[in-house]
Amino acid sequence: MLDLFRKRRMWRPASKLKGAYDVVIIGGGSHGLATAHYLREHGITDVAILEKRYIGSGAAGRNTTILRSNYKTPEGARFYDASVKLYEGLSQELNFNLLFSQCGHLTLAHSDRAMFVMANRAEVNRLSGIDSRLIGPDEIQQLAPAMQVDNPNATFPIMGALYHPPGGIIRHDAVVWALARSADQGGAEIHQDTEVLGLERSGGRVSKVKTDRGTIAAGQVLNCTAGWSTLISDMAGVKLPITTHILQACVTEPFKPLLHVVVVSSQMHVYISQTDRGEFLMGAEIEPWTTYRMQGTLNFLQDVCRHSLELFPQLERARLLRSWAGLCDLSPDYSPILGQTEVENFHVSAGWGTYGFKAAPIVGKTLAELVATGRQPELIAPFALERFYEDRLVSELAAAAVSH
Description:
Blueprint: H1 2-8, E1 20-26, H2 30-39, E2 47-50, H3 59-62, E3 66-67, H4 74-88, H5 90-94, E4 105-109, H6 112-127, E5 133-135, H7 137-143, E6 160-164, E7 168-169, H8 172-185, E8 189-191, E9 196-202, E10 205-211, E11 214-223, H9 229-235, E12 243-254, E13 262-265, E14 270-274, E15 279-283, H10 298-311, E16 320-330, E17 337-340, E18 346-350, H11 360-373
Parallel strand pairs: 1-2, 1-11, 2-8, 4-13, 11-18
Antiparallel strand pairs: 3-7, 4-6, 5-6, 9-10, 10-11, 12-15, 12-16, 13-14, 14-15, 17-18
């Protein structure tokens, strides 16, 4: 029986840490694992993935599974479009059913100003070759028959929406497991329950990574730790202009299929989708205070339920099964900080806010290219850390009025 269990493991049990690795990835979430997966394409297999808890225990396991590329800036739209295209082939690439459903994504507009903003975003998207368009209430009702669209007494009347057909949902834990299995098969070592305690610098490089299981030498070091990114970067002497907030979400008991599209309200600060298990998944904007304490609040539940019921009154008697919170690292312009830093061999994937899971494949592919070639890929060049010192911000603030 033990031999059968070993054969069915998705990745090898952790071995002892070696004294040195070509690449050390801090963070066992979707970005760190995706980088290890794509490093295989460059023949780099001497890789250690260090995770403080267990694989997918952070943002990768606490997000709300929405994928899309209809962002506000040309730089952001191109970047996330590349990620969605990778997601489209990821199940086949990883030989793992990721339950990816490109069911479409609606961003509702409730005012004339919101309609103008949505029209502007649609044109930005279309110029980048992204399928995105402004639609009216009749088409919204066809896409979401269960939603209350034509309500004369609505606090937030639905005037239109930005419709993004390639958007959808995916099984987030399946993505993490599949990437971890692929990284392991490629030779990377996955070390769970391994906390990074410090980084040693020598000659403008990070020379050693101190952990609670010993110290290891590193050729290249990647910080892929989401809400904890500032703490790890501080160890390398790299200051990141990031604040950490919590984001909350909840799910109802299962229902028969009612909603076949992702719905985001641009003024009610709520987003809703229905999972493969039939649960209605609901979330809102990040909390305004900075904290590392992932504790839910009654205010969130009250607000998200009130706004969800305005759109779906038939959920009035639905029972909430569970709620949770995760950490989000926000940069000043709401765009990521990605790639090289002033420390020669220390690279970061940070500042994602609530957008990180959407970007996992393209982050992994571009960071792997950076590690292998030493050159910053053109696709991620706009998101370099130095943009904050050169007045080259890439503002995605209010890209969807809520963070999704």
